Amino acid sequence: MPRAFTPKVVTANDLLEGDVIYQTEDDRWSRDLSDAELITDEAHAQVRLLDAARQANKIVGAYLADAVAGENGPEPTHFREDFRRTGPSNYAHGKQENSPQPRA
Amino acid sequence: MYRYSEFDTAFLAERNRQFRAQVERRIDGSLTEDEFKPLRLMNGLYLQLHAYMLRVAIPYGTLSSAQMRQLAMLAEKWDKGYGHFTTRQNIQYNWPKLKDVPDMLDALAEVGMHAIQTSGNTIRNVTADHFAGAAADEVTDPRPYAELLRQWSTDHPEFQFMPRKFKIAITGSENDRAVIKAHDIGIQLVERDGVLGARVLVGGGLGRTPMIGKEITDFVAFDDLLAYLESIVSVWNQIGRRDNKYKARIKITVHENGIETIRAKVNERFLQVRPQFKGADMNLLEEIKGHFAAPAFREGSVASFESAYTTDPVFRSWVDTNIAPHKNADHAIVTISIKKHGATPGDATAEQMRVMADLAEEFAYDELRISHEQNVILPHVHKSDLPAIHARLKEYELATANIGLISDIIACPGMDYCALATARSIPVAQQIATRFDELKLEHDIGHLKIKISGCINACGHHHVGHIGILGLDRAGVENYQITLGGDGTETAAIGDRTGPGFAYDEIVPAVERIVDTYLDQRDSDEETFIETYRRVGMAPFKAALYPEAQANAA
After folding, report:
1. Count of domains forming chain B
2. pTM, entire model
3. CB within 8 Å of chain B, chain A residues 58-87
């Protein structure tokens, strides 16, 4: 039996800044995971990934990352995505510089 | 110190001009990422977890004060005020913006530095003994030869699209401080009957399949060395496996074919290659040697050093751990620890870089070195200057007396920065250092090398750590495997796995149990961790790490 589809967000890095970005429902790119479109349908996920891949002059390396619905929008399920939405743990650099997102 | 010729300068300017145009074409959409990626990697530019990362080569680990100041300038102007020194004598900037990178490369070129071949399937930055030219135990300074290798390998037309990356390390000493046995090619300069030459090792490497390098020849005279090395790379370039990335490194080629077969093929190839080398390389080497002439070591009394050593216990402790013997008896080699307890191993702020540059200019004949152990070295210091250097280092949190001790940890960037990582390394290193500093046990424990990698690629050299730690992702959770008994020196060995791994919050207590076991088992204060491990074996450590398994077996 194929594995059940788990919810996803489309994420990538910004071409110029290199930082982590997320695709929103209204086709913008947000720096904040909580703004991302949480995709619960597999076919729709593939379409949205293709939408992202077409924006090669703005973004790099789009992929689907697992996420779950949280109180304020999508939240990561894996620690790698938790780091990507926050920043490194040895300095308060990256996204946490501007908007603190305490790690669980 | 090597000074760029007109050719070097023009070559670099042209490469930087090309890359600037490539970046522009990527930004205006003329190049796709698939087209741009190999171009940016050729110039040391990665895209990591949170940002781009620029990896700059520090050839054979040698820097002038002007170069170090320029590295500080880059950190301040285009990064977040610091840089990260790596296990391959590079410096990495973790936060550059794409459009700034061409300016960064131009700024590096102003001081004769570049990021060429710090990535990709090419011959990477040639690393060397960080005590080269200063060590008391050296046959000859390996850096002129390393510079010849840099020039030979840079843009070498035959070696731009190899099966995989290729790493060369070189030393002039029997005591291996350059981990030559864990490199694709390891070179040890030796003298035989008055002729300088090299013993050559091949097929070492860490990563997924760790291997200790095997001797392919015990002696090649200098005249033939470059042709011989070209023959090795050429044979591998031809028969190395391109079908499987994980089997592409020369260590697998040597392992699968056997060292005898490889030696025979290299000797055969050498007959073809040798006539192409008509002595121009030796003329160039002679010229390069002139750039590396030893400074005129100053003479003077060392009485002030001896009196400070007697009266100042903090200074004495620093001298005992951070100073190594110099070939000139009145001089010393200073290792500056950039691993203050709790700090990120290998990171230096722009201010610290400038302080170290100032010290080099003022006291150390304008030379600095970067070690593969992620520290900075002043290779030539008159002993009478040591108290003043120590005083200045203290002001900038650079006087930690921990070289070779438990907190002198190698750690790769791990999941805090690296896109390939499977777990974090830096916070594990920070916590181990902090914990043993609190216990005030560090000097009692003595010589002990901990090396931490955040993935199987082993940038943190965990296989050759006395205690090696490998961070993995086990079902979505960080998990750390431990190896014991690894050794990165002339007695190189791959560590043995202790057993099942430990969770993130269990790894520091596990290291503590290992160290307690060592303190309990050692037969005297003089017996080091690695000696004890070799004498008593894995069993007592395993018993301490896995008490439940022992209880169940009983």
Report:
1. 4
2. 0.96
3. 60-61, 77-80, 83-84, 87
